[in-house]
Design brief:
The protein has two domains: 140 residues, Rossmann fold (3-Layer(aba) Sandwich); 149 residues, Response regulator (Rossmann fold). Strand 6, helix 6 and strand 7 form a beta-alpha-beta unit. The chain is of the alpha/beta class and 381 residues long. Helix 2 packs across helix 10, helix 3 packs parallel to helix 4 and helix 5 packs parallel to helix 6. 44% of the residues lie in helices and 18% in strands. It contains 14 helices and 13 strands. The strands form three sheets. Strands 2-1-3-4-5-12-11 form a seven-stranded mixed β-sheet, sandwiched between helices. Strands 7-6-8-9 form a four-stranded parallel β-sheet, sandwiched between helices. The structure holds beta-D-glucopyranose (BGC). The site of beta-D-glucopyranose (BGC) has 13 residues, from loops.
């Protein structure tokens, strides 16, 4: 097998103030537990002093706790601080909804549109519509291949994959010929391809010289965590219940895989990778059920996006270009896209504290009975 490529707006000030209070509360909780809590359908609070309207569409809730737990509150805060009035919505994995949300934002007069799309095709269609109305578009986290957006803000996603490969290699270093299953993200998300490419820079030479043995490599449509778990279970049983390491492209998939491993009494004996430094992922690391995750400081992603959006809303492309000094290649559109690419960090049991110290996840979210000793040893409190 191989990886597939393939309104409260304008409402009285009192309501606005209440709305703002709600956002502040959510932010203060550092909401990042499993299952995606707040749903993302409530309108964003109106700005304190009336800012420039910016539309933000996030792709999903269920594929990762990051979107509602980190991105939404952090973008909201960063954009308000930059004098913008963000309307942040979540398409809940529904292409039609993604498109309808975009239409609504375009007709409501947003000055900039920020999109983290479900697929490149869906995102590119929205970007083209916005462009026709003279609205600049920022691709957020996921690049729309073959699209027209002028700017892109994300992490170095090949590096994310390379860190996953390194983590796995490190965990399996003393197991010559260790058997590996790779569970990848959605083929319609360019990031999933980049994560895979990054992983292969480390793993392919190890498969080639026999240090590791590839059992199977499977992409999971829509990053569906449940399907990821089921797919993994089939591959595991098909291999006689034998596996030493699993590349899980993010913490959501890792969680589903750990559930399957637990069912077969294998959790803790198999190295599992992850990504997003979610509360569930970090807790699994402290329990010993997951080997690593990748911490992507999303506040930096939100801050860079807010800065770009504020400049573009004023038509100030000079400032935008000074912010987005890197480029990424869009092989489908055969173009270079001006980018901000931030640096991801490898997290294992030894440095989970980095994430709690940075305020992304609270000790109380990850230090439970099963992990308390590990929390104490790591000084997480
Ligand atoms: C993001 C990851 C996330 C995944 C699933 C990717 O595009 O970069 O952080 O885990 O989508 O939502």
């Amino acid at each position: 097998m191989r990886v597939g490529r393939s309104a409260l707006r304008g409402a009285p000030k009192m309501i606005a103030a209440l709305g703002l209070g709600l956002v502040l509360t959510l932010t203060a909780c550092g909401a990042n537990s499993s299952g995606g809590s707040s749903g993302g359908t409530a309108p964003s609070a109106a700005p304190a002093g009336g800012g420039v309207k910016v539309g933000v569409i996030l792709p999903e809730t269920d594929t990762s706790a990051r979107w509602e737990g980190f991105d939404k509150p952090m973008l909201d805060k960063a954009m308000r601080a930059a004098g913008l009035d963000p309307d942040i919505q979540n398409a809940q994995g529904d292409e039609q909804k993604f498109s309808t949300l975009a239409d609504g934002m375009i007709s409501s007069g947003v000055k900039v549109l920020v999109i983290a799309s479900i697929s490149s095709d869906g995102g590119s269609a929205v970007a083209a519509k916005a462009k026709a109305q003279g609205i600049p578009v920022i691709d957020y986290d996921r690049l729309n291949l073959g699209g027209t957006s002028d700017y892109y803000v994300s992490f170095d996603n090949e590096k994310v994959g390379a860190l996953q490969g390194q983590g796995l290699a490190q965990a399996l270093q003393s197991k010559q010929g260790a058997q590996v299953i790779q569970i990848e993200g959605a083929p319609t998300d360019n990031n999933a391809t980049l994560f895979y490419n990054g992983q292969q820079t480390v793993l392919k030479p190890m498969y080639d010289d026999g240090r590791l043995k590839l059992v199977a490599n499977q992409a999971i449509d829509k990053w569906d965590n449940q399907v990821g778990g089921q797919t993994f279970e089939q591959l595991l049983t098909g291999n006689g219940g034998k596996v030493d390491g699993v590349v899980a492209a993010n913490d959501g998939l890792a969680g589903a895989i750990v559930t399957v491993l637990t069912k077969y009494g294998l959790n803790g004996q198999v190295a599992v990778t992850g990504q997003d430094a979610t509360a569930d992922g970090l807790q699994a690391i402290l329990r010993g059920d997951q080997y690593m995750t990748v911490f992507k400081p999303i506040q930096e992603e939100a801050d860079a996006t807010a800065k770009l959006a504020a400049a573009l809303a004023k038509g100030d492309t000079a400032t935008a270009d000074q912010t987005a000094t890197q480029t990424v290649n869009d092989p489908k559109g055969n173009r270079e896209v001006k980018s901000v690419l931030l640096t991801p960090q490898l997290i294992t049991k030894d440095n989970v504290k980095t994430v709690t110290d940075a305020g992304y996840v609270k000790a109380s979210e990850i230090c439970v009975q099963a992990t308390q000793a590990a929390c104490d040893a790591a000084g997480i409190k």
